[in-house]
Amino acid sequence: MKRILIAALVFCMGTGVVDAQEISSRKTDSVRMDKKARKPFELDLENELSLTSEQSAKWNAIRQDMNDKISKVNNDPKLDRTQRLEEIRLYRKSQEKQLQEILTPQQQEQLRELRKAKKAQRRKDKGE
User: Fold this and answer.
1) How far apart are CA 37 and CA 117, in angstroms?
2) Nearest CA to 103 among 39, 58, 43, 40?
3) What is the pLDDT along the chain (128 residues), one digit of tens a residue?
4) DSSP secondary structure string, 58-101?
5) Which helix (H) or strand (E) holds 25?
6) pTM greater than 0.85 (yes/no)
């Protein structure tokens, strides 16, 4: 009788561990897929907006500055998650302002349209 109970207990514990591993791997896979899924939605501003070489140089400098700032914020142990997100949000807002300053009015409109289209595509893909 004890043997049967012990065997049943071991069996139940074993299936619980297997299920936990499967759930963990599914979560990891979905995170990986989400990051991969985002890639097609990123805008290639230089090509899609036909930036001039001067605009392109300014845009690359803005992007590099932004990447440096984000790295600095992410590596700052004094900031908690909320503070990091807020800092990054402010940096992105500043980056958007700088981008608008280097674009012509026509390119600004084109960027709005591209972003709308990308957003609609994400929603469509998410709904499927």
Assistant:
1) 16
2) 58
3) 667 767 766 676 666 655 555 555 555 544 444 544 444 445 677 888 888 999 999 999 999 999 999 999 999 999 999 999 999 999 999 999 999 999 999 999 999 999 899 889 888 888 76
4) HHHHHHHHHHHHHHHHHT-TTS-HHHHHHHHHHHHHHHHHHHHH
5) helix 2-38
6) no
